[in-house]
């Protein structure tokens, strides 16, 4: 059984003469949560520490706020560590979020700069999202995982996660933040799709758009050389005839297990004892922060969870969310998208030895 620490989002101030109470801020409570949970105790002086979060996309309005990230950075600085705030590129080659340049531009538009978070921002998988350490493992689905190189070279990772729903993976908690957010395009593809892309010769007009965009010259005679292809999805993005065969896109247990297997490769690479996790169960939207919009939250804000156990913290966040009543403006009138398997995430993660679903919850007011 692991310890999970929690601070609530409730603010019970009703007296207008006592309105100024900065200690009631969730930022102040976050500071106390980090201190009393001791989740950063394994950080040593001089360690390179990655603060892994999600900057949202252009148009996202309910991603995690930068002042929470800044507070986490401030607490790590007390350890005399070397810190950077990080994210990885998205699948594809044409949208802004698919390159490091675009990721940083979007981050700045959404309020994440080196000044606002108090540390440099580095995109962990390189300029175009292929900079990786290849990790081989004996897993059910993912035999090889491309871990973002900067993450692989980091001494300690602090996952600062906006806990919300996800239309494929069920929920976006710490497991998804690590499993999808710390790998390159190649493994993102393998998580979402069961087989590599293929060109449909009957639909192909030989326009050469796919040939021109491919960064690895993997398309020859209008066939994809799978020994060269790193599965970035660039060819599918530019094909107007939809001649690139993909899919079906995965959901349910299939994608849940792939997310966990990718997370395991990341954790094995950095070291299981070199992680701390914070789940912000606030603004729990029905969509991931990679969507260029944000729907109203499904439930009222719950609070922030802290743990060194990735399975326990996601289980505690799930349990709390399931107990809440849906708001009147909830997009879906059930707790999860019906085709997803959020429980399988934590079940499979426990099966693979990443942590325990049994936890002891301690509230920090």
* CATH domain class name of the largest domain: Alpha Beta
The number of domains is 2
CATH architecture level-2 label of the largest domain: 3-Layer(aba) Sandwich
Low-confidence stretches: none
Beta fraction of the residues? 15-25%
Major sheet: size, sense and barrel closure?
8 strands, mixed
- The value of Rg in angstroms is 21 Å
Distance separating the two termini: 22 Å
Count the beta strands.
Answer: 16
The rough form would be described as: globular
CATH topology category name of the largest domain = Rossmann fold
Structural class: alpha/beta
DSSP helix count? 12
Strand order of the largest sheet: 4-3-2-7-14-15-1-16
* Fraction of residues in helix: 25-40%
Please characterize this protein's 3D structure.
It is a single chain. The chain is an alpha/beta fold. The protein has 2 domains: 2-10 and 22-193 and 248-363, Rossmann fold (3-Layer(aba) Sandwich), CATH 3.40.50; 198-245, Alpha-Beta Plaits. The chain contains 12 helices and 16 strands. The strands form 5 sheets. It has an 8-stranded mixed beta sheet, sandwiched between helices. The chain has a two-stranded antiparallel ribbon with strand order 5-6. The protein is globular and about 75 Å long. The two termini are 22 Å apart.
């Amino acid at each position: 059984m692991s310890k999970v620490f929690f601070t609530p989002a409730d603010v019970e101030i009703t007296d207008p003469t006592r309105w100024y109470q900065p200690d009631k801020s969730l930022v102040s409570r976050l500071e106390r949560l980090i201190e009393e949970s001791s989740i950063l105790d394994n950080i040593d002086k001089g360690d390179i520490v990655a603060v892994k979060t999600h900057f949202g996309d252009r148009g996202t309005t309910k991603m995690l706020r930068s002042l929470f990230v800044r507070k986490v950075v401030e607490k790590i600085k007390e350890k005399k560590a070397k810190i950077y705030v990080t994210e990885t590129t998205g699948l594809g080659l044409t949208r802004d979020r698919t390159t490091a340049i675009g990721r940083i531009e979007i981050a700045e538009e959404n309020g994440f700069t080196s000044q606002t978070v108090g540390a440099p921002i580095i995109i962990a998988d390189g300029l175009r999202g292929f900079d990786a350490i290849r990790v081989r493992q004996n897993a059910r689905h993912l035999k090889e995982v491309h871990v973002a190189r900067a993450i692989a070279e980091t001494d300690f990772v602090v996952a600062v996660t906006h806990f919300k729903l996800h239309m494929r993976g069920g929920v976006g908690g710490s497991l998804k933040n690590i499993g999808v957010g710390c790998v390159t395009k190649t493994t993102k593809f393998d998580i979402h799709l069961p087989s590599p892309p293929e060109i449909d010769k009957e639909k192909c007009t030989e326009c050469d758009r796919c040939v021109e965009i491919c960064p690895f010259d993997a398309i020859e005679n209008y066939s994809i050389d799978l020994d060269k292809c790193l599965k970035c999805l660039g060819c599918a993005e530019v094909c107007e005839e939809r001649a690139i065969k993909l899919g079906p896109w995965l959901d349910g247990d299939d994608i849940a297990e792939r997310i966990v297997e990718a997370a395991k490769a990341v954790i094995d690479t950095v070291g299981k004892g070199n992680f701390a996790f914070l789940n912000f169960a606030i603004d729990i939207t029905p969509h991931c922060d990679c969507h260029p919009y944000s729907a109203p939250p499904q439930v009222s804000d719950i609070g922030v969870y802290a743990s060194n156990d990735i399975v326990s913290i996601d289980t505690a966040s799930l349990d709390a969310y399931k107990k809440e009543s849906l708001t009147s403006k909830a997009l879906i009138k059930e707790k999860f998208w019906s085709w997803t398997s959020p429980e399988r995430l934590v079940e499979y993660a426990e099966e693979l030895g990443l942590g325990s679903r049994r936890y002891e919850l301690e509230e920090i007011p």
